[in-house]
Amino acid sequence: MQIKKVVSDIFLKRNLVIEDCLITITKVNLTSDLRFAKIYISIYNVEEKNKNKIFLNIKSEASNIKYLLGKKLNSKYVPNIEFVIDNDYEKYDQINKILKNG
Question: What's the CA gap between 31 and 38, in Å, rounded?
Answer without folding.
Answer: 9
